[in-house]
Amino acid sequence: MAASVALVLRLRSGLRLGARGLCARLATPPPRASDQAQEIGSRASSKAQTQGSQQQRGTEGPSYAKKVALWLAGLLGAGGTVSVVYIFGNNSVDETGAKIPDEFDNDPILVQQLRRTYKYFKDYRQMIIEPTSPCLLPDPLREPYYQPPYTLVLELTGVLLHPEWSLATGWRFKKRPGIETLFQQLAPLYEIVIFTSETGMTAFPLIDSVDPHGFISYRLFRDATRYMDGHHVKDISCLNRDPARVVVVDCKKEAFRLQPYNGVALRPWDGNSDDRVLLDLSAFLKTIALNGVEDVRTVLEHYALEDDPLEAFKQRQSRLEQEEQQRLAELSKSSKQNLFFSSLTSRLWPRSKQP
């Protein structure tokens, strides 16, 4: 009985509270449009401020990282510079470890270090750009030894060999057809020199493989070239040979840019096994030598502007052969006519017999 009475009392109090809340809501006037607009504007402004602060924090993060990276790069660069000056700025030492005096010993310590470092890198750059020696070849042979009258300078890659790469074998070099014929026909007439832009470590075994009979007289490598505008240039004036009797064969005109009328530019060999360019080259150079040309530049100048000098030579040679055959045919015809008239004259006017 007491529990039921308590339950009834709770229900009454709940109904009273609900009625009071409903009356309060009904008594409260609805919000005006201006108040709603202000509330929306305040919410939008607070949201924009939040986004702006987030964007500012986002831009501040990368800029700070960039500053830190720049500071670290600057410190590393400064440290590296100091280390380089310290290492390369000291005096050279002899076998016993004693310092070798130089022209910078009387300068202040810091100036000594800086000048020695500058000289070291200057000499190193000069070593890369300039040939290793002003005379790359020894003096020509003298009697009783035989010195060929001409010098032939050949590039290795693209002229005599073609590099090929495969997943199974890696890098391999293919010999161009006609190498043996070229060497055999020209060795008595030309001093054959391999002058390549490859390094000696790469080219030396390749030269051994293409010349088992020893037709090649000398070998020059990349360190003997002159580095100009990104190209390894072969300076003929450093060969210790008469430039009037030097022929350079390469697949890049930049290789003989200092002496353009001493060179024959071939198209790079693509590895075709039916190639006959070396045979044509042999015939071309053999013609120059057998005709005893005093200055090869006068001949090579005519072919300098040709896209394919050997093809132009073949066409000119064919034309000259046709002209020679025509001349011989006319000469033969003329001699036959003279013989006929001579025979007819002798029959019509026989010589009187001597008493």
UniProtKB/TrEMBL annotation:
Keywords: Membrane, Mitochondrion, Mitochondrion inner membrane, Protein transport, Transit peptide, Translocation, Transmembrane, Transmembrane helix, Transport
Subcellular localization(s) per the UniProt record: Mitochondrion inner membrane
Source taxon at top rank: Eukaryota
SUPFAM superfamilies: HAD-like (SSF56784)
Entry annotated with the keyword Protein transport: yes
Entry GO terms, CC: TIM23 mitochondrial import inner membrane translocase complex
Polar residues bias locations: 35-58
Summary of subunit composition and partner proteins: Component of the TIM23 complex at least composed of TIMM23, TIMM17 (TIMM17A or TIMM17B) and TIMM50; within this complex, directly interacts with TIMM23. The complex interacts with the TIMM44 component of the PAM complex and with DNAJC15.
Record protein name field: Mitochondrial import inner membrane translocase subunit TIM50
